[in-house]
Amino acid sequence: MKNNSESAAKSLKREEMVKFAFDTFYKNGFHATGVDTVMEGTGISKRTLYKHFGSKEGLILATIDYYRTNMLEIILGYINSNPNAQPVDKMLRIFDFLIEKAEEGHYNGCFVMNAKTEYTNKGTEIEASCDQYTAGIQQLIEATLKEGNILDYNELAVQIMMLFEGAIIRSKVTRSANTMRLAKNAARMLCEYK
């Protein structure tokens, strides 16, 4: 029994560290946040942090995994919330998700895109983990378009992904949900063209 409760406590502490690091990295950036900040915020020692993650990069990978797992599930649930929607309308809801987040005041961009930008040519594992996330979003778009029997759905998914990522980046500058609305309209026109 003791091992199970110790294991649960360690898992809970690890999860607490990941969530705190996630929030801090998202707010301040990856390079601007040192492990000391995470240690202070969670009350853990450097030894414990390195025992769980091995390095700051290991902690960053854990936060990316946390984001990827949660966000893909949230987005999938969001676009499938209306079971009667046509596939193209379901796919376009990915932009509604962005609009909703922007209207709530979330202008920090995409956590994974931020990590990819900061670690380009500096962290192979971090870049690969980020690429997994964006590939997952693109596969979700592809699958939804394929369901609608859209010709060239693979090519269209890449174009929509460019609009999706561009809208996120642009909204960081404009601090406006209008960027997402424009991207959604452009995605709709692309779908109608196909």
UniProtKB/TrEMBL annotation:
Record-linked Gene3D superfamilies: Tetracycline Repressor, domain 2 (1.10.357.10)
Keyword Nucleus: no
Entry-linked InterPro entries: Homeodomain-like_sf (IPR009057), HTH_TetR (IPR001647), Tet_transcr_reg_TetR-rel_C_sf (IPR036271), YxaF_TetR_C (IPR054156)
Protein name as it appears in the record: TetR family transcriptional regulator
DNA-binding region: 34-53
Domain of life from the UniProt record: Bacteria
Keyword vocabulary terms for this entry: DNA-binding, Transcription, Transcription regulation
Pfam families: TetR_C_13_2, TetR_N
Gene Ontology molecular functions: DNA binding
Keyword Transit peptide: no
Domain HTH tetR-type, chain residue ranges per copy: 11-71
Xref: PROSITE patterns: HTH_TETR_2
